[in-house]
Amino acid sequence: MYEFKYTKIETIDSAEEMLSGEEECILLAGGMTLLPTMKQRLAQPSRLLDLGGLDKLKGIEVTGSVVSIKAMTTHADVAASEEVVATIPALAELAGLIGDPQVRNRGTIGGSVANADPAADYPAAVVALDGVVVTNHRSVVAEEFFIDMFETALEGNEIITSVTFKVPTRAAYAKFPNPASRYAVVGVFIAEYDGQYRVAVTGAGGSVFRLQAVEEALSANASLDALREVLKQNPVSDDELNEDIHASAEYRAHLVAVMTERAFQAM
Asked: How many beta carbons lie within 10 A of that of residue 208, not counting itself?
């Protein structure tokens, strides 16, 4: 690990000021990705800005048909939240599948979304649940927020303050996890809104993406037969999918179909 300076942040404004005034200054949320990367000397920030003391960035609120989860809320808190379980149980289940207990009790939703790891679970939920990423300056809809692998629409001085989700009629998440890290080799989140479906895939490509052909088929005929037929007629191309030691692009394309079917059956 390279030498760096550490600052415990007391206000969002002070964090923004330091982000704007110092190069290679990085926010520290849960640190589940950042700290291991630093230990391997793959990252060399000049300063870490620890957001852990900002209680105003922690908590879950339900207002009408919208669930708002503040950025420093841990995965464990999302999984155990009575509000989330009552409104979007699939989101609580997703949070409970992230990593191991240590990761779930330290990692945060804001940190995960900002990191935009292609194998992270939350992006699929944010996109499928018509989510909005709220920062200290603006609100960004999910499909404009996630750009590419580890790339988002965040500007240099922006800090995620919360993520909002639209409560669906029903929803489900299914993933094929890496047996060691529990990251999603492929994960599929399906949400229904009064007969209209949104289907988002994580783990397979460089960034989260939607299965529009599947969405249209299910919106017209929400049956397992219709789903299997559209997956057969519109197979996911492996041309732009991830390929690594864990799974080939061809296998990931196969898993997209399998996990989509499992998620639909779990709804």
From this structure: 26
**Residue 143 lies in domain:** 55-166
pLDDT along the chain (267 residues), means of 10: 92 92 89 92 93 95 97 98 98 97 96 96 98 97 96 94 98 96 96 98 97 97 97 93 95 97 97
Instruction: Judge if 43 and 75 occupy the same domain.
Output: no
Tell me how many domains the chain contains. Answer: 3
Torsion of CA 92, 96, 97, 102, to 10 degrees: 150
Cα–Cα distance, 34 to 115 (Å, whole number): 9
CB 37 within 8 A of CB 15: no
Q: How far apart are alpha carbons 86 and 13 in whole angstroms? A: 34
Same domain, 175 and 114: no
Residues paired with 197 in a beta bridge = 192
Identify the bridge partners of residue 6 per DSSP, sorted by sequence position.
48
Say which residue the tokens 């994580």 belong to: 202
Predicted TM-score of the model (pTM): 0.95
Cα–Cα distance measured from residue 157 to residue 16, given in angstroms and rounded to the nearest whole number: 5
Nearest to 76 by CA among 99, 42, 55: 99
Report how far residue 115's alpha carbon sits from residue 132's, in angstroms, rounded to the nearest whole number: 16
> CA-CA distance, 100 to 190, in Å (whole number)?
24
